[in-house]
Amino acid sequence: xIPTTGPERAQGPAACTHAxxxxxxxxxxxxxxxxxxxxxHGFAPHEVVPTxxxxxxHAHPDERDRAVAELDAASRTGRPFSAVHRxxxxxxxxxxxxxxxxxxxxxxxxxxxxxxxxxxxLTDVVDDRARAAATASIAAAAASRSAIDQAVGVVAFVRELxxxxxxxxxxxxxxxxxxxxxxxxxxxxxxxxxxxHDPGRVSQFLEGLxxxxxxxxxxxxxx
Length: 223
Hints:
Blueprint: E1 19-25, E2 30-33, H1 35-40, H2 52-57, H3 64-77, E3 81-88, E4 94-104, E5 114-121, H4 128-144, H5 147-159, H6 163-177, H7 181-191, H8 199-222
Antiparallel strand pairs: 1-2, 1-5, 3-4, 4-5
Organism: Cellulomonas hominis
Protein name: ANTAR domain-containing protein
GO molecular function, one term: RNA binding
């Protein structure tokens, strides 16, 4: 049931156990998960067949309805989204996971042909106090689904940062370039289709766009 021509296993930053990529064929409802997404859900690679039902079964009961609504909206409109979810993996461990994605292509009956993006597991990235703050911040982002929040998710994924540090990178880049942060965020989000959501190409794009700001942000965090 899994397409053999799906995206190849993510390389670079996506190869860590805390982030991975996914793809959903909207017409056939077939999913492709990278090895890291299996790990986030508590499975060995290809131990199970990824399905929408399996995904929702691991969503926290209090957030399952919201997850259904978000997946439905993405499948119908293809609009970019960024959301935080609590996930209970196959081993019973609770995780805090950011899901970033958007539609690609055009289905014959309208809407996107597929939805692609990343799962970013923040559970072990930040300590309890920082995770509480990050969760509140990302939860607010999920409500607005703004370009800034989506860009924060992309930077966090590529740079392996928590959301607060990723936002510092964007803010520093905004200051250095003397442009509003929302303009910079739109540039990042707008480039994703051209980069075909390939983690390596996204990483190279961000290095070129944010490298000076990244040094400034890191220096500020370590100071």
